[in-house]
Amino acid sequence: MTISTGALVLFSGGQDSTTCVAWALQRYDRVETVGFDYGQRHAIEMTVRPGVLASLRTQSPDWDRKLGEDHVIDLSLIGKISDTALTSNVEIAMLENGLPNTFVPGRNLLFMMVAATLAYRRGLNVLVGGMCETDFSGYPDCRDDTMKALQVTLNLGMATRLKLETPLMWIDKADTWALAESLGGAALVDLIRTDTHTCYLGERGTLHDWGYGCGTCPACALRANGYAGFRQQRNAAA
Ligand code: ZN
């Protein structure tokens, strides 16, 4: 029996999800992408998405052929039902419960549920997301167990056989750069450096060796440290 392998990748325009799109393009015959517009303060992520996808197409004719439709879904209801530093203009800080105030409760659950419904309509049977336990930001909806439980729930609730893939779950940010290199060589690393966006503050003025960003917010710090680790490993191997 041939199982058609089409994937829908949760694609925000950041480093992780761009690596996930490349990962899916290496594995599946058809790859579509979905982005969620929820009034995030780093809305610049949403604006870099088309450019990243266009650049991915130039990486190889195979990727260009496989890469299908990009969907943008309005989830502005998130801003209405939750109060978080990710959607309102307050200082990023840690809360008493140990979670950063950028935490949107259950956000990834909602994302996956919406993506599952879209995948159903598009005839895609794999969902790919950049959730990761290793660089633990304190987000319980990024955990492996959460994703596995959600896969069961979605398949029970929709009578489907969807597979949730999270290729970054057990690797750190240095290895995410290394994964990009193994998928698309130096050209893909360069694309991710210059085209993708991670900074919480939406800063895109200065190009650092790890990409654009303020350099000090938690997202920039993770990305910059990861890139430094990746370069170190490269130099040690050379
Ligand atoms: Zn930043």
Termini Cα gap: 45 Å
Spatial extent as radius of gyration: 17 Å
Number of domains: 1
Which CATH first-tier class would you pick?
Alpha Beta
Provide the low-confidence segments as ranges: none
Small molecules held by this entry: zinc ion
C-alpha geometry: globular
CATH superfamily: HUPs
Task: Please state the structural category.
Answer: alpha/beta
Strand order of the largest sheet: 3-2-1-4-5
The averaged pLDDT comes out at: 89
Number of DSSP helical runs: 8
Elements, N to C (H/E): EHEHHEHHEHEHEEH
CATH architecture annotation name? 3-Layer(aba) Sandwich
Under CATH, the topology is which?
Answer: Rossmann fold
Per DSSP E runs of 2 or more residues, the count of β-strands stands at: 7
- Provide the β-strand percentage band: 5-15%
Q: Could you characterize what this model shows?
A:
This protein has one domain: HUPs (Rossmann fold, 3-Layer(aba) Sandwich), CATH 3.40.50. Helices cover 48% and strands 13% of the residues. It contains eight helices and seven strands; from the N terminus they run βαβααβααβαβαββα. It has helices at residues 15-27, 44-59, 61-66, 77-81, 107-122, 144-158, 173-195, 218-237, and strands at 6-10, 30-37, 67-74, 126-128, 163-165, 207-208, 211-212. Helix 5 packs across helix 6 (144-158). The protein is globular and about 50 Å long. The model has no long low-confidence stretch (mean pLDDT 89). Zinc ion (ZN) binds at residues 199-201, 203, 213-214, 217, 219-220.
